[in-house]
Design a protein that fits this description.
The complex is a heterodimer.
Chain A (H helix, E strand, L loop, with lengths): L2 H5 L11 H13 L7 H12 L4 H10 L4 H8 L13 E6 L2 H4 L3 H12 L5 E2 L5 E6 L11 E3 L2 E3 L4 H16 L1
Parallel strand pairs in A: 1-3
Antiparallel strand pairs in A: 1-4, 2-3, 4-5
Chain B lengths: L24 H6 L5 H8 L1 H10 L12 H6 L10 E6 L8 H8 L1 H15 L3 E6 L4 H16 L15 E6 L9 H8 L23 E5 H13 L1 H7 L7 E8 L5 E6 L2 E2 H8 L9 E5 L8 E2 L6 E2 L1 H6 L8 E6 L4 H15 L5 H21 L2 H12 L9 H15 L1 H5 L14 H4 L3
Parallel strand pairs in B: 1-2, 1-4, 2-3, 5-11
Antiparallel strand pairs in B: 5-6, 7-10, 8-9, 8-11
Helix pairs in contact in B: 2-6, 2-9, 3-6, 5-6, 6-9, 9-10, 13-14, 13-16, 14-15, 14-16, 15-16
Classes of the chains: A alpha+beta, B alpha/beta.
Chain lengths: 174, 437
């Protein structure tokens, strides 16, 4: 991206988001004593709708909160769940932290690499799956656990994970 | 969906409504919900704080600070609005208790938040969940909407002249945000960087106003204290450690799960009786008693009571209640490496000892585990870690250093077994694969 892109805050015309999301944003900014507090939820919901935080999405959010684009980018770069490039339709996040590691989390991640033919933070050529090795996702007593987008799958084995991936694959083709 | 476990030794207080459909407001009321807050409202702030002190409830996030005392630090008069902040950014590896609270009993969090608000004179509360818990935010938001619809939140709650608003949101992936001042930064729409203390949040917190910030389990416990009576609640636990706590057993136990047991419950009994011992009849090697940041205990050190004081005396910490069980097959160097890899990833980079220390520890341990370690590395790892202690704004640096020091101190032999070009003698993988860790 060029420097002008991040330093010039153009006033976006209308909204790039769906009417539902735009309405949600209008409400969100009123909930907090300070408008800016809505920033992280807004970034998340925008990403959910578009798939990633595009330049246009960032510009509109910045404008809605009366922040500079640079300020918004500075914040979003801090959070591991926010991304500025598209991921697969289904983002497979495999936990390999201690509790999952003790129950085969690392092996599960390597199994995914083989099954999907991609590595950490990569996307399959058909855009269906992306893969991520993640830190603890809060499912330690039900390890090993995987999150696909926001859905939790726990007590997994390579076989049960294969079945889950197959389900997502068929969902993608529908 | 996480499975619920049960054991006759359990004393179910916070978890008493798990699996009972209490996420629905009418069911929650049927099970005695929203009674405690009415009682608290009648009795007033001073009574609430006195009860909280008498309950001996200590913060469930990890530090174990007495909750009643924390609430009493908030100044009565304040020009700026006061706030209640619920920390549900549960991210400490080994910990998954708040997950169950938000899933099964979201109204207990709302009720506890209102009571905290009454106690300190706040008119607004925030419930902050970790970003990965999006499906739990949906449950929480429905619960909040239902509470508004019943008049339990909003203007003139429960027909009184007291107003109270609650907003919930998630983060977006950051362990550091679980630290109280970083959480406030995040809630203000900024990077989750810790603030210097003092001033403490009770005086200058969210939006610069006096703020009480408590762990989600702590807040969910509050209504139960009033329901049972503070003395009765205190009696369930051990000395100066009131009540029960949710212990998240993970790793190599036969029956992993979240068990609610009285404070002071014996750790050995928890592992061998409640959680059914070690899977496949293997030998126990070590236990991480309270989440990844707490120093490891040897199998010979676990005949202790699980409360803040007794685990402290044993040289570790009760922490967040994440009991990670390690059997004889675990390579402790690999385990230390995985632990430090986490802290290196999560260090926010604000304080140099933490940012550089975790990075060097990860590099050294990676090389060491692969068999390229030198004898002097062992002391160097400990030296690096010791020099991070107490030298950072927030406790993340300590959280990385403390377990590392314990791994070297207690498992030095395993480190030595990796020396002289030997790849990990405990792992299944050849050395060339280990280098890529």
């Amino acid at each position: 991206m060029s420097l002008t892109n991040i330093s010039v805050d153009k006033k976006p015309e209308g909204t790039i988001f769906s009417p539902e999301l735009a309405a949600r944003f209008d409400k969100l900014v009123t909930l907090y004593p300070m408008k800016r507090s809505a920033l992280i939820p807004m970034l998340l919901y925008a990403q959910d709708e578009i798939g990633y935080l595009s330049d246009a999405a960032i510009a509109e959010i910045a404008h809605r909160l009366q922040l500079t684009v640079l300020d918004v980018r500075n914040v979003l770069s801090y959070y591991s769940m926010l991304r500025t490039r598209p991921a697969g339709k289904f983002n497979v996040q495999v936990c390999t932290n201690i509790s999952c590691m003790l129950r085969g989390g690392q092996e599960l991640f390597e199994h995914c690499e083989r099954q999907l033919g991609i590595g950490h933070k990569q996307t399959t050529p058909d855009g269906v799956f992306s893969l991520e090795e993640v830190e603890c996702i809060g499912a330690c007593s039900w390890a090993p656990a995987v999150q696909v987008n926001y859905d939790f799958h726990d007590n997994l084995t390579p076989e049960t994970l294969d079945a889950i991936l197959a389900e997502y694959r068929s969902k993608a083709s529908q | 969906m996480p499975t619920l476990v049960s054991h006759p030794e359990e004393v179910k207080i916070v978890s008493s409504r798990f699996g009972q459909g209490a996420a629905e407001i009418d069911r929650y009321i049927e099970l005695g919900g929203y009674q405690a807050v009415r009682q608290a409202m009648e009795q007033g702030p001073e009574w609430i704080i006195a009860q909280m002190k008498a309950s001996n409830l200590r913060g469930r996030g990890g530090a174990g600070f007495p909750t009643g005392m924390k609430w009493s630090f908030v100044p009565k008069q304040s020009e700026k609005p006061k706030y209640v902040l619920v920390n549900g950014d549960e991210s400490e590896p080994g910990t998954c208790k708040d997950h169950l609270i938000f899933l099964h009993d979201p109204h207990s969090v709302i009720e506890g938040t209102i009571i905290a608000g009454l106690a300190i004179g706040a008119k607004m509360g925030f419930i902050y969940l970790r970003g990965e818990y999006r499906y739990l935010l949906t449950i929480m938001e429905k619960a909040i909407a239902d509470a508004y619809a019943k008049g339990f939140l909003g203007k003139g709650i429960f027909g009184s002249n007291f107003d109270f608003e609650v907003v919930s949101q998630t983060g977006a992936g950051a362990y550091e945000v679980g630290e109280e001042s970083a959480l406030m930064e995040s809630l203000e729409g900024k990077r989750g960087i810790p603030r210097i203390k003092p001033p403490f949040p009770a005086v200058v917190g969210l939006y610069g106003g006096p703020t009480v910030i408590n762990n989600a389990e702590t807040i969910a416990t509050v209504p139960h204290i009033f329901r049972m009576g503070a003395e009765a609640y205190a009696k369930v636990g051990s000395e100066r450690n009131g009540g029960t706590r949710l212990f998240c057993v993970s790793g190599h136990a036969e029956r992993n799960g979240v068990y609610e047991l009285p404070m002071g419950y014996n750790l050995k009994k928890l592992i061998y009786e409640v959680a059914g011992g070690i899977r496949g009849g293997r030998q126990l090697k070590a236990v991480v008693p309270g989440g990844s940041s707490t120093p490891v205990l040897l199998a010979s050190e676990i005949d202790i009571g699980l409360d803040f004081d007794q685990v402290g005396q044993a040289g570790s910490m009760l922490g967040s209640g994440g009991v990670v069980v390690l059997d004889e097959t675990v390579c402790m160097v690999e385990f230390a490496l995985r632990t430090i890899k986490f802290y290196q990833h999560e260090s926010c980079g604000w304080c140099i000892p933490c940012r550089e220390g975790t990075d060097w520890l990860k590099k050294t341990l990676t090389r060491f585990h692969a068999g390229a370690g030198e004898a002097r590395d062992i002391d160097n790892i400990r030296y690096l870690a010791e020099n991070m202690l107490g030298r950072t704004f927030c406790p993340l640096g300590d959280a990385a250093a403390m377990p590392t020091i314990a791994f070297v101190k207690k498992f030095r032999q395993e480190f030595e077994d990796h020396l002289d070009g030997r790849p990990c003698p405990y792992a299944k993988k050849p050395a060339n694969e280990l280098v890529g860790v």
